[in-house]
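Email to the structure team, subject: Cadherin 10 model.

Hi all, the expression group asked for a predicted structure before they design truncation constructs. Nothing fancy, just the tokens so they can compare against earlier work. One-line instruction: predict Cadherin 10, return tokens.
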Amino acid sequence: MITNHFLGLLMLFILQPINALPVAPGNTVNLLGTLQEKDDGRILQRSKRGWMWNQFFLLEEYTGNDNQYVGKLHSNMDRGDGNVKYILTGDGVGSLFLIDENSGDIHATKRLDREERAIYTLHAKVVDKRTNETLEADTEFNIKIHDINDNEPKFSKDLYFASVPEMSDVGTSVIQVTATDADDQTYGNSAKLVYSILQGQPYFSVDSDNGTIRTALPNMDRETKENYQVVIQAKDMAGQMGGLSGTTTVSITLSDENDSPPRFANHTFRLSTLESAEVGAAIGRIKANDADVGRNAEMQYSIVDRNGQDMFTIISDQNTQEGVIRVKKQLDYEKQRTYSFKVEVTNTYLDPRFMYSPNPPFKDDAMVRVTIEDVDEPPVFSRNPYIIEVHEDTAAGSFVGVVSARDPDADNNPVKYSIDRHTDLERLFNIDSVNGTITTLKGLDREMSKWHNISVVATEISNPRQTTRVPVFIRVLDVNDNAPEFAMYYETFVCENVQSGQLIQTISAVDTDEPLVGHKFVFSISSSNPNFTIVDNEGKHLFVICISMA
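Reply from the structure team: attached below.
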């Protein structure tokens, strides 16, 4: 019963190293054969040949001046007469571990670090010094390096970057940071980490167990503050006093959400443009502001009343997010000098979550006032072109027709008229410079020219550079001022024995005047020619008939 009790203590020593290192002075642990313990002056022993399993425990980071004592090997073959020798082989023997071959005492020669190596496996045997005979065969045992809390927690990164949408709900996960501790995870609290936040409250919190950072404040607005620097600490010993700690910094950016509507800084825009602006020309830009960024700040502009829609269009410049106003129809200062219309701006992309926020709606409007500036325009003729008719027998200085032009500008400056002499080289016509009356300078002959095409120039008196030309087509009307003529010279021959009534010649006549329905002539024959007669063919032709040749 006593022996069994001692063996139980030995197993407790082995399995609970924290209570049994190193072998205490006053106790002799015989690893070979006999185990002895001093107990009330009595010697307890159990005889058994051979090695028994054991392992030694050694504290890491020893700082003493002498070699660190590890433990003692002993065989029941050792009678204390100095005839046995203990031999040690295995990991680190000779460099890290030394054994006294006479006593079996093992020492460590260097400071050991469990984080570099946690266990060493060695072999021991006993030989007879005189015969070198092996008294006990090789037996394996371990030296385990016992951990102390000598390593602070370390994060995988010195600086983390993370983002979370603005206006996220409280408790939204941002990022998980992880630290590790090189100390023994299975022993004590040396590697049990607790996370805490040193900087970043009240905006963020951290899960003490797993390092997950979460939002801690509602309605965090990127437009108010975009970037946060959060410092997280990991502390070992379960966060208790005296534990080692490490820190890391997390740079957290609030990513943009479309929670800000577009707004005009000014609700009245004043623009001006010349009335001569071409259709499609840009006359000005207006701009609304949106505190969001990226696609959340993209805007669309539109004209919402008819007064502006008829004359102008507006498009959105995707690069500047400005509204560009362009001319839709030709402007006329004399018809309308100012335009006022409403422009509305909305976000291109809307987020339904914020459409019912405290500041709806997600649009704004402004008034645009456009002033049309007058341009000095050239005179405008009442007609283009002019077609005038005049008889050819009109005398020089006679009235031909009138042209009229006016200044379309509001000032209605007077104009003067002239004929482009390159179109009237013969100077057949004249024009009154004040009232535009055209008269003849010479007589006209329709038979020489049926049409006269001239250009009349109207010039603004106050600004001679403003001129306008108009074509004037003058048609010369015919009068019966030319006698008819025979179409040709006729010379007729007839035989002497021609019968009476024989047609001997057909004669035609022409007239250079212009008939309305064709010319009709009256023919006659001289009475001194009784042998011939004529027959009038409806005033068109003359038939010469032989009567007799007597």
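The radius of gyration is 63 Å. Residues 1-53 have pLDDT under 50 and may be disordered. Ping us if the truncation boundaries need rechecking.
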